[in-house]
């Protein structure tokens, strides 16, 4: 692995963790809005974002108060969502993967750990995730593309956002 790729993945991990912990009251619990989840669209453009998001989520969840189960379940949900996003054919489908995976996995984990109602918890987590991915993530990715910071898969164009 190239040093630059490793550094890029590490920076994504650090950014995810810092953005999550910095706004901790919004980031944890049955009703949550993680601004850092906007970064979950990066795997469409950067393969190193897949492990970067996993590590960043693991670190962030260490500060969340739900312990090892959240560190494991939340990080694995982020990893699965990142892999699915990486395989998505367009930006909109890429944004849908983290919403569905986190609603199910994190909603289920919070139901087990906090005793929150499963349906409502999944709905709340999914709604927060949808806000982060669709309202923040898609505009962020488009801005990074316009600025020439992201250039798409394998350096050849960008995934369609239609």
From TrEMBL:
Keywords, alphabetical: Membrane, Transmembrane, Transmembrane helix
Residues spanning the membrane: 12-33, 53-84, 91-114, 120-140
Highest taxon above the source species: Bacteria
Keyword presence, Transmembrane: yes
Protein name according to UniProt: Predicted membrane protein
